[in-house]
Amino acid sequence: MSQHRHPGAPGRAGAVPTLPDLPEATVARLPEYLRALHNLADSGHETVSSEGLANAAGVNSAKLRKDLSHLGSYGTRGVGYDVALLIEQIESVLGLTQCRSVALVGVGNLGHALAGYDGFATRGFRIAALFDADPARVGEEINGLVVRHVDELSRVAAEQLISIGVIATPARAAQAVADQLVAVGVTSILNFAPCVLSVPEGVDVRKVDLAIELQILSFHEHRKASLTALPGTAGSALTALPGGLAATDTQEAIGT
To answer: Tell me: the pLDDT tens digits for 149-167?
Structure first.
C-alpha cells in the first residue's frame, strides 16, 4: 500500500539521477518479475519470452513489455529476454546489489515469524537487530539474534548501519516506534501495524494490513455469491443492500 507523509508534504526530492523515473505501478511489479526470473534461472532457462515471463509473474504481456521498456530492456525478436541480464538490470534498479540491514521492532507472534524467516537473505536483506519494549521478550534469541530493548535502538542502528525499519507492534505503539526510527536516521519503514503513520518528508512508508486484504477478498466472495444466488439473472444479479435496497452490476442503488 502507498506511503504516507505529513499533509502537504511534496514528493521525495534528491532522486539518484542515473535511475529511470519509473511509475509507482511499475516499481510494484518489478519484484514479481524478479521472483519469476530467479525461478526460471533456477530451472535452467537462459532466455524467456515476454509471454512466458508475464504468465510466470501473473501479468499481461503488454504491461510487462511496457514496464521493462522503462529499464531500456526490449528483448530480442524471436529469442526473448536474457534471463541473467534482466535479473541484473532489475536488481540494479531496485538497489539490491548490496545487502541492506533491517531492524525489526516488535517480536510478538507476527514479529517472531518475520524474524525467523530465512527468505529475506536471498532477496538482499539482513535482519540485523530485533527490538521490543516488553521486558519478558528482551533477551530472547530468535534465529541467532538476541532481542534488545527498544531503548537501545539508537546505538544499535548506528552500529549495524540500519537502513530499513520494520514495525510489527500493536497499533497503539506504532507511531512512537516510527518516531524513534526516524530519529535514528531510518528513512524507509515497512509497517505491519493496523494504523496510518505520520512521518516527515523524505521518509517512505509501506503498509501491510492483513485484515484489509482479507476484507477485500470478503467483498469478492460476497459479490460472487450474489451473482449465483438467483438463477437466471446472470448479468443483472441483485445484491442486497442495507435498508432493503438492491443494486445490479450495471446499476447503482441510490438511498435517501
So the answer is: 999 999 999 999 998 999 9
